[in-house]
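Record pair follows.
FIRST:
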Amino acid sequence: MMEESSPPAELDDLDWRILDALQADGRMPNAALAHRVNLSPPAVHARVKRLQEQGYIQRYAALLDRERVGYDMLCFISVTLQRHQLELVEAFRAAIQEMPEVLECHHVTGEYDYLLKVVVRNRKDLERFVLARLTPVPGVARIHTSLALSEVKATTALPLDAPPPDREA
């Protein structure tokens, strides 16, 4: 079920600069952030708090090197459901939420219904994940797995340097 929310207040250029700086370094001290955007520390603190309350900043996280912590395989798994009944869709989504190997799950258009970004330690873990965890989920009809050979680009930063269409420079 999708949640509806009221649109947040419009952001000014300082808000956009704060968001951009925090994407690059979420642990940036308030004083450094204030210096970077040329604002007082209390004013920056108030803006960051407002951006968090309005949902622009969802959370802060440490980004780990998956290979260094033992997850050698990055996979993209496409899943097709047997039927698009609400009960099956909800059961699938609930099951995916309980699978820590699934980093991302997207409901997509096209040949498949869902695209999963999955990490596993090795080939045996991938086999175990697909056969013992994913295949038994009620409603799963078809699974297609692709292995990432290398990461050409991986970022979490949104391109905030270009204003959205409704925000003229």
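SECOND:
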Amino acid sequence: MISFSGTPASLTNTHLENLRKWLKSVISNENFVTGEIYFIFCDDSYLHQINKKYLGHDTLTDIITFSNSDNKQIISGEIYISVDRVEENRKIQNVSFLNELSRVMVHGILHLTGYDDQTTEQKKVMRKKEDYYLSLLPQKNS
């Protein structure tokens, strides 16, 4: 189950259903099973507080992912996404809001499947995976 909370108004039910199917296919392709995954869309202020409280980082970020899975093969967790950061990043990257949001969402899923982005090499691997999965996103949803 993949659910959404605080969904940006620009996302239609069709967008959400297409994103849900796409993310489930990403999880399956990474050889995991979809458990309970919650995407919580919020603003910079809310995510900044989470970042300080739980991670000890006093910085803005676009995403924070918490795994809730007890089973290594089942992906479950909470993925917090700052819509403010997504909007800012999409302008910098010169892509659509939906494209950047999709990148951030798959980034969170990849974290839940075990990928990290602490080192330069890990960031390269993560970006390559994001690009690959974005290429599989239905065109009407990008």
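COMMENT: Residues 2-141 form a domain with the Collagenase (Catalytic Domain) fold (CATH 3.40.390.30).
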